[in-house]
Automatic annotation (TrEMBL):
GO cellular component terms attached to this protein's record: cytoplasm
Gene symbol of the encoding locus: ndk
Cofactor requirement: Mg(2+)
Active site: H117 (pros-phosphohistidine intermediate)
A molecular-function term among this protein's GO annotations: metal ion binding
Enzyme Commission identifier(s): 2.7.4.6
Name under which the protein is recorded: Nucleoside diphosphate kinase
Subcellular location: Cytoplasm
Subunit organization: Homotetramer.
GO biological process: CTP biosynthetic process; GTP biosynthetic process; UTP biosynthetic process
Domain (Nucleoside diphosphate kinase-like) ranges: 3-140
Length: 140
């Protein structure tokens, strides 16, 4: 398996409840390295562009309001097969369906306020990393 980088967000429901460290521990325990990280607060326009692929979905407006309602922590995670591995660590979108021990099973509040975002493929990982990080910020 190749060394990959994926993009992650610790969402507002989690930063509000002081869960940044607990979530980062899950990544590190699973062998993912946090190679870049910063805490930001998105504007609604920035959240809207990030989730553009969901623009036609009924939850889009609520999702964008939620994502800019409080600070988030944006991150780049690196490791062998990091994209799929992170999706495993995160668990299913709906915490009711998430496997025990996953971030969403332990921390998510609802299908919308589900604590983390993770890229779903190499192409989206590259686009999402470049949306939030300059090359010089990726120090490895
Ligand atoms: N979402 C929602 N309601 C839904 C499905 C998704 O509010 O019925 C939100 C949720 O925050 C989710 C995000 O939209 O994480 C993006 O949805 P996606 O299907 O890409 O799920 P993910 O890749 O985050 O597991
Ligand atoms: Mg997704």
């Amino acid at each position: 398996m190749a060394l990959e980088r994926t993009f992650s967000i610790i969402k507002p429901d989690a930063t509000r409840r002081n869960l940044t460290g607990a979530i980062n521990a899950k990544f590190e325990e699973a062998g993912l390295r946090i190679v870049a990280q910063k805490r930001i607060q998105m504007t609604k326009a920035q959240a809207g562009k990030f989730y553009e692929v969901h623009a036609e979905r009924p939850f889009y407006d609520e999702l964008c309001d939620f994502m800019c309602s409080a600070p988030v922590v944006v991150q780049v995670l690196e490791g062998e097969g990091a994209i799929a591995k992170n999706r495993e660590i995160m668990g299913a979108t709906n915490p009711a369906d998430a496997a025990p021990g996953t971030i969403r099973a332990e921390f998510a509040e609802s299908v919308g306020e589900n604590s983390v975002h993770g890229s779903d493929a190499p192409e989206t990982a590259a686009v999402e990393i470049a949306y939030f990080f300059a090359g010089l910020e990726l120090v490895g």
